[in-house]
Batch of 4 targets.
Target 1
Amino acid sequence: MPLNQTPAKEDLVYKQFLDALIKGDRNQCSGISNALLESRATVQDVYEDLIRKALYDIGELWEQGKISVATEHMASAISEALINEFYAKIISGQKINKTLVVGCVENEYHQIGIKMVADVFEMNGWNAHFLGANTPTQEFVQFVKEIQPDMIALSLSLYFNLPYLEKMIQAIREEFPGLFILVGGQAFRHGGKEVIKAYRNISYQPDLKSVELFIRKINNNG
Ligand code: B12
């Protein structure tokens, strides 16, 4: 049971959360997600089975014209606030001296998924530098030069941003031929994996559970 509830209870709690998100009731959203965390749900469960699920539904409602753009903006702002609220629960007591730079490619404004990914790395002892949405390629590369991370992670939700991913990969490869690149986001639902096949040391992971397994493998191999 993803949120550690019975199916009926889980459904009810989810509906209350979605309603509160649409109404802009941040307090209730915060109360529901914190109560779930206290009742044995993991941060990843709350991220994916509550917040991600609600945002996907909000996307559908917006597409069907049932909610406004303003409501969608408000829902994503509340979701980001909730994620930031969890920070105290996220920081790992034990840091492992590994660093990651994460962000969205140019022209990509959907930054909530990659923020969740950054948090999963933090929970596993990594130090994640989160650059957020629409990071210009050269600025990203410059930052990587300064930080010298062990890995970078890139997100894109829009399929038409794939050329920006390639631009970023090529720019990174010119400076750091062997640096490992993790990629993900909804753009890959519509294809796009062929773009990354052309390069070495790049991995696509679809969700937080697979990201967690991926990190554990790396942490165990040193
Ligand atoms: C909120 C939102 C916005 C906000 C984003 C604000 C923000 N701070 O991030 C704003 C208002 C900016 C926005 C703008 C637009 N949006 Co919008 N948006 C959404 C919405 C409702 C939620 C996005 C979200 O946060 N989802 C929840 C997160 C947690 O899910 P996720 O991104 O999939 O992340 C998970 C995995 O994919 C994975 N993952 C993600 N990144 C990475 C990276 C790595 C390395 C790894 C390993 C894994 C990974 O892990 C996450 C956890 O499971 C979606 C609906 C949807 N289906 O998501 C539409 C949606 C993505 N948007 C859409 C559209 C069309 C747009 C606009 C073009 C609208 C417009 N006409 O202006 C613009 C484009 C802007 C741009 N250039 O990027 C469409 C895309 C359709 C398509 N097929 O491409 C969607 C699907 C809505 C819809 N149903 O039509 N949007």
Target 2
Amino acid sequence: MTTDLLRALRFMRRYTLVAGFAVLAVLAASAAELIAPQLLKRIIDVGITGSRTDVIIAAALGLVGVAVVGGIATFLQGYLSARASHGAAYDMRNAIFEKLQGLSFSYHDRAQTGQLITRVTSDVDLVRDFVGGGLVQAISAAIMLVGAVVLLLEMNWRLALVAFASIPATVFVLVKFVGNLGPSFRTFQQRLAALNSVLQENIAGVRVVKAFAREPFEAQRYRGADELLLDQGLKVRITVANAFPLLFSVGTLGVALVTWVGAVQVIHGELTVGELVAFTSYLMLLLQPLFIIGFGAQSIARAGASAQRLFEILDVATDVAERPNAVAMGPIQGRIELRGVTLRYPGSTTDTLSDLSFIVEPGAAIALVGATGSGKTSVVNLIPRFYDVASGAVLIDDTDVRDVTLDSLRSKIGVVMQDSVLFSGTVAENIAYGMPDATREQIEAAARSAEAHEFILQLEHGYETCVGERGVRLSGGQRQRVAIARALLIDPRILIMDDSTSSVDAETESALRLKLDALMEDRTTFIIAQRLSTVRKADTILLIDDGRLVAQGTHDELLAENCLYAEIAASQLVGGERVGMPDHCDLLAERGDV
Ligand SMILES: Nc1ncnc2c1ncn2[C@@H]1O[C@H](COP(=O)(O)OP(=O)(O)O)[C@@H](O)[C@H]1O
Ligand SMILES: [Mg+2]
């Protein structure tokens, strides 16, 4: 935990200069505090005892000067440390964000959004508070501690030793206190993250919650998580509340002891009154740092727990990592080969794909057919290397996808995923997502090819209509077509469409298919579709069953010779179109759309 905190300090690197000045300001402020008792002593011992008004005035002015310097230094310390710590927090957030983006699909399959958001926000803030407040205070406290110890020893070493008697007890209380707090704060952050996960899921799924009238259940779930957080918050408070009276008692005991011994020394003429006053002032300066460290300990414990959570993300190894000697992939033909591929998802105990081999010639259109959960999506996800194979290899133009950089590989593949996610922004921006410098002509051409142009023009602001969160809600089919346009715009050599037209109505789909036919001419295309018409057009159909390739051929070939295919064709693939349906498929057309 402490090591995580020290690692977190590395985020201060860019702000060394600012932080350096903050420490200088701390030194100045501490010096001012250490000088003040000396002036006080002079006022009492020389000024009052010797009836010297000039000394009193000079020393009093000195006190004012010291206070002014101290005030300015304290302000600068606060300002400069805030600059440094907010800068460090800015860098931390960006580092985590970039790390999260770099993590592979398998990480995000299992990560909870609420958890991640808590780390990027609350945990970063807690580490920042420590760096900006706790750390500077601790440095200042350490300086004061050393200064006070030296001055006390110098003034009256015997009395100083009496004063130091209370230090071990104070340190003991502190150490125990920090030890207890660290795990408590960690639990607190975990419960906060759990609460945020419930919140995030509920906001994202609010329509489902309402559809099933589960509001009371969800409210109960949230309240449950909230109660756990409340309990933990109180627990932390109680630990803190217990520690401070103890610290104060130990400290006050020390002061009482010194005053008593010192008073006896004054009576015996071994000490002046001014010296005793200055001495007790320094004693307060000695105890104050200990209290600050005590307060700081809380911030240290808390920041340590948060730093640990930050590095849990920053240290995750990416499953799908670029090889050090990866090269950029040059222009490709689009020949794809899966050679003895086995895929096992992280955390799974069985292989999702086993010993899968096939070759696709450049420009071919491939349809993947199989029952739900048979592994169709898993197969196509291997081509842009969303996941890595456990054994075997995926080759594009005889190059293993693991030998090239991810950027260059993925920029050649247009992917339309099973669910079409749009970002907040205009329709045009969403289509141009993979090619931000695309011209309006290119965007419109892509939209036309995706059969999206017409409906986009009918939106209130056409291509400039805002969609995504807080924008116009498009229908499922409309979103799919925007997603298709987005994939087509980058003019990929390889096009992957995973159930991309499932929500598009039959009529639009057949219009879309005509356009796609032309577009598919010179690209290697993988289609996972539920419509027979789409599948029938494919050059080759790959029949997947339970992660294995069980047959391949054209629709007619498979229909004639493969019972599983015939069965799937009957149960899964739906027609809807009125043209060219073979006799024995007529029945299917009756089943209508899914
Ligand atoms: N990200 C994942 N992590 C773990 N298991 C997965 C993941 N994606 C899919 N699976 C599992 O792999 C199998 C094949 O899934 P998938 O390829 O999505 O099938 P299909 O697209 O044919 O419906 C299923 O049993 C599914 O539960
Ligand atoms: Mg799928």
Target 3
Amino acid sequence: MKRIGTPVEPPCLAAWRDEHPDATWDEFRNENRDAPNGQRGCAKEVLETLIHAQRGLCAYCELSLREVPSHWPQVEHWHPKDPAQYPGHNWGLDFSNFMAACEGGEKAAPDLGRSLPPIKKTKHCGSAKGNEDHTAVLLDPRRDVPQTPTIWRFDPNGGIAVSPDAPQAHKARAEQTITLLNLDSPVLRRLRKQHWIELENDVQSVWEELGDSEEGYRSAVAKVTAERLGLSPEGRLDQFWSTSRAFFEDIAEAWLAEHPEVFA
Ligand SMILES: [Zn+2]
């Protein structure tokens, strides 16, 4: 979980909500699908706005939100949206309550390595969080996660833990966030371990290109750091961004000090 930006609400959602103040999220989504001629519906505009603000990453686990085209990512409601359980405010249509999240390890097919049986134990993100109100104990990636220092520690086996260097004020909620969102799920650990190996291979192959010297190694690390942490021309970030940040350690922190745009 990295610090993410807060997007501006699409006017089409505000207009629909004005007309249907008590409607549910499902009603909004069903009535605002893409038109048969392919014209984008407001439901997709909402989701794409969130994905863009999050630089293409799941707000919780940092999986890429376009790798499974047949399973469009979910609009995650930070505060539960059930009007029967939480009357008084329509959380289902409150844009400030939305984030984009991955499928949470729920989908077994197509198998791109993003789910692992038993699903009940390995699911994560919104799927693990369920409909409980955890807003007081979870870290909110839009407000609570600091840009610096990083509050997470990753290991070469893909495990995530709270960094001993995390600010004291964040530690208890960071622990709860890992537990309640199951961010140390075996399926995420497996994917982050693969990511770690990719980073090692990237550095190795760029080092070989640049020459087998200490100078060449430093240049290779600097080059791969910028590639892995920087924004693509489309404004997206590489998945498992915080794992890359941990991998490159001080080089990453020095690079980030010059590139605050990755948090906006
Ligand atoms: Zn996720």
Target 4
Amino acid sequence: MKNGLPVVQVLAACCLIACSDSRDSAIGEPQDSGSAAEHAHGCSMSPSPAEVELTRWLVQRGAYEVDGHFDHFLEVDVAFHIVRRTNGSGGLDAGALDGDLADLNDAFESTGIRFERGTSVRYIDSDAFYFEIDTQAEIDALRSTSPVAGMINVYFTPNLANENYSLCGISSFTFSAVQGIVMNNSCSSSFGNHATLVHEFGHYFDLFHTHETAFGVECPDGSNCGQAGDLVCSTPADPNLSGQVSQCQYTGNATACGFPYEPQPSNYMSYAPISCRVRFRGGQRTRMLATLIQLRPGLIGSPGLQVTWVDFAASGAQTGSFANPYRTLAAGIAATGAGGRVVVKGPATTTYAPTILAEVTLDAFRGEVVIGD
Ligand SMILES: [Zn+2]
């Protein structure tokens, strides 16, 4: 759009929303999976209503599709951080990280993504982080500590919880305000857990739980698999497997839409016991690969979808992300290269009429945006 006064349309407000929790980035995995402790999760594990809308928008824009096949691995650097006491003692044995990296590469091999250490182990010597992390704010403070740009930052700490329960691990979606993965030391591979870190990496590449209901309840007959549940059709509908799996077999008898569930406890993104979770399905692998290429392009030097967010009503930091949008169209356009897309959160009106020299697409999110007089 070179000179336009575009009226950009408009996504109807959706959605089926299963909860009204407003926290954005909590995607925790409870500690002691498979025990009674796991039954306590609530909505903090789900995308928020705003994130549900955003995800549907991204689906419409093709963000989770990838063309063709790569004949080589896409290599992604990981930065491991280990929390120790202020005096430098304690913390996860750094030798354990080899096992965690091996688990990741086993799980992601057929996805076409390979993880490598991008830097030597970073240590964070802090009694505050070492002895007590039990709020979302503290989790976010830890993963804001010395993150390495262009890498997936993974923090290991001995005491990890949010306001509601002890956590094995917690991750971030591409659109979460605070990025990074935090792991409880006791859920690392050296303690026999080969699933939780993989599960958190799944979230990091925008996979949802197989039992997710924020997009609506998925029917076991597959009839709404692309719009409900985890939005992935190759994972069967899942009623939430907490306490419903014995010897890696589903033991429940729940139904939905008039059909019995036939879930897969083997899926990394389920809540089956840790030892049962050993695979991703094809649709999950495609979604993760597309997320890497389109939405986390900084990890591989790809141009990606190049979405710059603008919200005239925003406050706070301005980075052009969904969580921290620019406040003016001019700033958004200035930050967007040729081929990029500037998206204004609607409904909104501005009399500013931009002059756009590069080939940039203007788009609206959630309501009509009127630009110019
Ligand atoms: Zn999870």
